[in-house]
Write a structure and sequence with these properties.
The complex is a heterodimer of chains A (293) and B (269). By secondary structure, chain A is an all-alpha fold. In chain A, 77% of the residues lie in helices and 0% in strands. In chain A, α9 packs antiparallel against α10 and α10 runs parallel beside α12. Chain B is of the alpha/beta class and 269 residues long. The longest helix of chain B is centred in the C-terminal third of the chain and has 21 residues. The chains are: A mainly alpha (293), B alpha/beta (269).
């Protein structure tokens, strides 16, 4: 006699039993696959981090090289004889400073050194446009000369400082404090209007007979009270180019200073007739009124 | 009470050996024809062997049924293990000689020589592996007289192989091996059997997947298949009577096949 309920129960047990190996195999495959994938991922991550670290190292090396170059080629780096003392201090603090510099701030720490152009500003106030251009050229050339003079000096000082190249490399990283020191002790280069400078310009004027140079000399002589010389160079300027207003003004002013007031008035009147210069008119009024002596 | 289609189908698969229930399959038919041809040849002994349930008995029954109309054939489906009884039965059936008392091989040969009319008798012995070696040796000697031709069936086991080797190897002119059915053959077997009994509805319920599962469970063994099919339709009968919602009459459920296999012991639950 069939007992279907019992048979169904047996069948259910049989099905469960028959599925167990499949379930076990499937689970094993999933677990193995998961383990393999996890391992592969971890290997991939470590290789990634390795490459990232390598990249960082490469970046560091590149950055160090850039800093090294910047230090060697800095145009107005102002390393004085105090450098040895500074280097000693830096050597002592180098490790601490290295720790202080964050790894990711390499690009931020990059220093751009630009030449100081303060001396140009001083000159722009009292020179004619033409003269200013020439003066800029000269200043640039002088600046280049000064760079050329400074650079070897830096190398010489470094070579004499008996510091190994490795130590110098360490110094490169410490440019930040150096820059700070440099900013604090920065020197404003100002031109001194001495006779020596004037004589240098006169030499150049003798070479090329540029009226701008003779006018410059006349103005400088006038400024230092050498009215006779100011008169002579303004006269030369007028002979070379009789359309330069400031030259005529220096010329008449010098005449007044040399007690040749009548001659100065006469000259100004003739120039005003010729050029209708307002500045000349104002000066004539001042001279005739006795305001300019 | 009206019998259901499942009940009719179930009764078809009762494990009985009846020549009328013989199902013609292509491969089996070829084997059967070769066996019939071998019987007509002047051979002493024909061996039909195969695993249990491969249809040896059915083959022998079919052969008896087919040949008995044209010649004298004697089928012994049940082995006669006692030697005297065996020869006494042969004397009565073949020679129509009733012998009282013990009859040994020598006495039987004497009776045979006295009563033989020159006819060659055909004797079919089923389950010959049950005969003792001594009796099998005497059966061999009897076949050597060319007065009796034997067709014997053997189970193909190691022991039976040994028997075949020792007693019949040199005397067997023809041997036919029967094998389990393939999945396709099993489908034809089931469907033909059902259709033969006009159970077309249930015959159509057997799809390839169902027959594949049955073949997997029975390994194509006809006896196991019959058992399984009987139980299967028995289960269907129960569901039809008790819980008809649970069964689908358009196809045979794999669940019920497996339940039947558990019931018949083909599956260990």
């Amino acid at each position: 006699m069939l007992n279907i309920y019992e048979l169904e129960t047996k069948w259910l047990k049989y099905k469960i039993k028959s599925y167990i190996p499949h379930a076990v195999i499937t689970l094993s495959i999933i677990v193995i696959a998961a383990i393999v994938l996890t391992k592969l991922n971890s290997n991939h991550d470590t290789s990634k981090t390795d490459t990232i670290e390598t990249d960082i190292l490469i970046e560091k090396v590149k950055h160090t090289e850039v800093l090294q170059k910047e230090i060697y080629t800095a145009p107005d780096i102002n390393i004085t004889s105090e450098k040895n003392i500074l280097l000693n201090d830096i050597k002592e603090k180098s490790l601490i400073v290295q720790e202080m510099i964050p790894k990711n701030n390499f690009i931020k720490d990059k220093i751009v050194l630009t030449p100081s152009l303060n001396f140009m500003k001083n000159m722009q106030g009292n020179t004619p446009p033409y003269y200013v251009d020439i003066d800029k050229e000269e200043a640039n050339s002088q600046d280049l000369k000064s760079e050329k003079q400074i650079r070897p000096k830096v190398f010489l000082e470094e070579s004499n400082s008996e510091v190994d190249m490795e130590e110098v490399k360490e110094e490169k990283i410490i440019v930040v404090p150096v820059q700070a020191v440099k900013k604090e002790d920065s020197i404003n280069i100002t031109r001194q209007n001495t006779q020596k400078d004037i004589s240098l310009v006169i030499k150049r004027f003798k070479k090329n007979n540029n009226p701008a140079l003779s006018l410059f000399v006349a103005k400088k002589y006038y400024d230092i009270g050498e009215y006779r010389q100011a008169y002579n160079y303004s006269l030369i300027t007028n002979q070379l180019n009789n359309n330069i207003e400031s030259s005529w003004i220096i010329f008449t002013k010098s005449l007044v200073k040399l007690n040749e007031k009548e001659m100065a008035i006469k000259t100004l009147q003739q120039y005003i007739e010729y050029s209708h210069s307002n500045q000349a008119k104002m000066l004539l009024d001042e001279i005739t009124a006795g305001k300019f002596k | 009470m009206k019998s259901s289609i499942f009940q009719n189908s179930r009764d078809i698969f009762l494990d009985t050996v009846n020549a009328k229930d013989y199902i013609q399959l292509d491969r089996v038919s070829t084997i059967y024809q070769s066996l019939k041809d071998s019987v007509k040849k002047p051979l002493k002994m024909i061996l039909l062997y195969g695993k249990p349930g491969t249809g040896k008995s059915m083959f022998l029954t079919k052969l008896y049924h087919d040949l008995s109309s044209t010649q004298t054939v004697h089928l012994y489906s049940t082995p006669i293990l006692d030697e005297s009884e065996f020869f006494k039965t042969l004397a009565q059936d073949l020679l129509d000689v009733k012998y009282s008392g013990e009859l040994n091989f020598t006495q039987f040969m004497k009776i045979m020589n006295e009563n033989s009319n020159g006819e060659i008798y055909l004797v079919l012995l089923d389950e010959a592996q049950l005969y003792s070696s001594a009796l099998m040796e005497k059966i061999r000697l009897l076949s050597d007289t060319r007065k009796v031709k034997f067709v014997i069936t053997l189970h193909k086991t190691e022991k039976e192989d040994l028997i075949a080797k020792e007693h019949f190897q040199t005397r067997i002119w023809e041997s036919v091996e029967l094998e389990n059915a393939s999945s396709a053959e099993l489908k034809i077997y089931i469907q033909k059997k059902l259709m033969k009994a006009n159970c077309f509805d249930t015959a159509n319920m057997f799809q390839n997947s169902s027959v594949d599962l049955i073949h997997k469970l029975t390994r194509g063994n006809y006896r196991d298949t019959n058992k399984l099919m009987y139980t299967l339709f028995n289960v269907y009968m129960w569901y039809e009577e008790s819980n008809p919602i649970k069964i689908n009459k358009s196809y045979i459920s794999n669940k019920i096949i497996e339940m039947s296999a558990i019931q018949t012991g083909l599956l260990n639950a």
